[in-house]
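ingest -> validate -> predict -> emit
validate: passed (alphabet ok, no gaps, 103 aa)
predict: started
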Amino acid sequence: MDISEMTEAVESVSQGYADKFGIERTDHWFILKLQEEVGELVQAYMNLAGMGRERGLSDPEKQQALENESADVLAHVLLLAKNHHVDLQAAVEHKWLSRAESR
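emit:
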């Protein structure tokens, strides 16, 4: 699955969730939801690193939480970019990968 296919699949899931729960996905919603998910990723990382309060999770459960929250952040970056007509593949190639070629 390439990035555009992943974006469309994530969009479908997100739209279904929004329809089911009556959520209006506005420009504000996309950025605020991303911020919420980044906060949850930080919390998962802190738990895994032993820097958060004990939540009764095993190490594998903490690792799974980090993986789940990482996926949420990626999905919401894809959604935000799609909402603002950003071609992420082109943007990454321009911003990051062009520097790799000059090394």
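The chain has one domain: 3-101.
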